[in-house]
C-alpha cells in the first residue's frame, strides 16, 4: 500500500522516466553525408548487371563512347561496344582477359590483360569510390533523387580505391568527381572532370540503368 505522501513523488519520478524514453523531438537532422553513408551500407551486395553508357569528351569533341552490359558487385565482366573516331570494336571482359575485335568482322579476337578494361572511373568499385569522396570533404546536394555527391580528388587518392584507375589518371593534376546514389544505394551515375597542367580538361561520364541479375560472360569463340 502506497502512503499518501509518497504518491506525488512516485508520480513525478514516473513522468521523468516517460519523458526520458520519449523520442527527442529536437534530434539533430540527418546530414547529407550521413544519408549517403546509410544508403551505401544498406545496399544489397549481391552481384547484378546494369546497362552501361560511358562517354569521354574534350570540350565539344567526343573521344570515346562505350555501351553495353556489365556485372557489378563482382569482378568487372561484361560485353560492350567501344567507339572512337578511329574504330568501333566489340569488347568482351572476363575475369582473366579482355577481348577486342572490330565490329562486323569474324577474325581472331585480340587478347589483353583484364586490367586493360580499366579506364578513368573505378566502375567495379563505385561504393568505395563514393566513400573516398566522403572522406575527402565531399558535399551532398539534398532534396532531390538520386542523392548527388561531389568532391575534388587527386589521382593518388583514387589509386587507394583502384590502383589501375589511379595510375591511368596520373597525368591529371586533380579530378572533380561527382556521383549520384539512388534509394537502393546503387551508384547510378558518375561524372569526372580531369584537369591537366598544360592540356584541356577531359570529362568522363558513366550512366548505369536497367538493373537485372548478373550475366554469364565467357571467352569468345569463333563468331560469338
Describe the protein's architecture and organization.
The structure is a single chain. This protein is of the alpha+beta class. Helix content is 21%, strand content 38%. It is built from five helices and eleven strands; from the N terminus they run ααββββββαββααβββ. An eleven-stranded antiparallel beta sheet has the order 6-5-4-3-2-1-11-10-9-8-7. Strand 2 and strand 3 form a beta hairpin. The radius of gyration is 25 Å and the shape is globular. It starts with 6 loop residues before the first helix and ends in an 11-residue tail after the last strand. About 8% of the residues have low confidence.
Key features of this structure:
224 residues, 5 helices
Q: TL;DR?
A:
The chain has 224 residues and is an alpha+beta fold. Helices cover 21% and strands 38% of the residues.
List the helices and strands and how they pair.
Blueprint lengths: L6 H15 L10 H11 L5 E11 L2 E12 L4 E7 L4 E6 L3 E6 L7 E4 L12 H10 L3 E3 L5 E7 L1 H5 L3 H6 L5 E8 L5 E9 L6 E12 L11
Antiparallel strand pairs: 1-2, 1-11, 2-3, 3-4, 4-5, 5-6, 7-8, 8-9, 9-10, 10-11
Amino acid at each position: 500500500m502506497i502512503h499518501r505522501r509518497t504518491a506525488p513523488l512516485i508520480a513525478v519520478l514516473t513522468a521523468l522516466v516517460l519523458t526520458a524514453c520519449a523520442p527527442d523531438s529536437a534530434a539533430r537532422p540527418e546530414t547529407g553525408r550521413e544519408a549517403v553513408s546509410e544508403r551505401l551500407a544498406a545496399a544489397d551486395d549481391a552481384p547484378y548487371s546494369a546497362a552501361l553508357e560511358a562517354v569521354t569528351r574534350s570540350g565539344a569533341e567526343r573521344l570515346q563512347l562505350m555501351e553495353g552490359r556489365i556485372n557489378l558487385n563482382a569482378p568487372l565482366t561484361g560485353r560492350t561496344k567501344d567507339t572512337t573516331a578511329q574504330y568501333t570494336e566489340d569488347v568482351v571482359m572476363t575475369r582473366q582477359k579482355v577481348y577486342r575485335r572490330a565490329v562486323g568482322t569474324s577474325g581472331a579476337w585480340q587478347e589483353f590483360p583484364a586490367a586493360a578494361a580499366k579506364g578513368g572511373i573505378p566502375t567495379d568499385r563505385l561504393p568505395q569510390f563514393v566513400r573516398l569522396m566522403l572522406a575527402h570533404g565531399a558535399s551532398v546536394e539534398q532534396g532531390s533523387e538520386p542523392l548527388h555527391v561531389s568532391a575534388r580528388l587527386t589521382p593518388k587518392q583514387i589509386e587507394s580505391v583502384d590502383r589501375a584507375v589511379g595510375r591511368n589518371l596520373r597525368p591529371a593534376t586533380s579530378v572533380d568527381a561527382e556521383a549520384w546514389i539512388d534509394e537502393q544505394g546503387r551508384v547510378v551515375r558518375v561524372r569526372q572532370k580531369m584537369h591537366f597542367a598544360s592540356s584541356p580538361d577531359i570529362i568522363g561520364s558513366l550512366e548505369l540503368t536497367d538493373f537485372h541479375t548478373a550475366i554469364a560472360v565467357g571467352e569468345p569463340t569463333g563468331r560469338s
